Amino acid sequence: MIVLKILTNIAFINMNIFSLSLAIYGILNIKKIGNLKIFILLPILSFIDSFSLILLTQILDHKNAFLLFSEYFQLIFLIFELAIIFIFYLNTIFKLKNNLIYSVPIITASLLLALRYFSGQNIVNNYLPLFVVIEALIVDICFGFIIFKKIKNDKPIISISENQINTGFFLFVNTTAPYYLVINYINNFEKSPVTFLNFIGSFGYIILFYHIYKAIKCSLLK
Asked: Which residues constitute the domain of residue 76?
């Protein structure tokens, strides 16, 4: 248990350092990275999520405020994460590049936030498995399709930067999806073991952020 707790703290700290560094790196190069701009949202949202935990629970000791903030912010985070994945594969596989599609996560987030406010439902907790399964299915199916097309055509069908993002999403969902499904199951019975599994979630985001960084770097080297 002690080892797992140490791993959790190390992974959490490294994820925050990586997310903040990637966000700054992306913002500094925002004019040069083209369609990769949207991926900078992920480390920014991740850092806000983690920093709010530290600020509200450790520094200000307002745990109730954090729980309320987290219910709303986690919903925004999940919607934008899922939307970015969806938009990425629409762009890479179907070559559908319509700026109107970027309004979808904003509209969806607004509607679900309103539902959360007026109904009082904790949407993230109640429907987390659904979010996770949908996200994993989209990534795994699209990843498999891209690999199949690459083998069939004997050449890549996406750019080097897109390949980095594709690989990052695949490793991310297959690392974190089982973790999120397990902790959702455990939460129904016993909360204490969950804290010792948190390093898996942080590790998954570190993998994703690394591949986003590689994608941006490849884009800048063109």
From this structure: 2-220
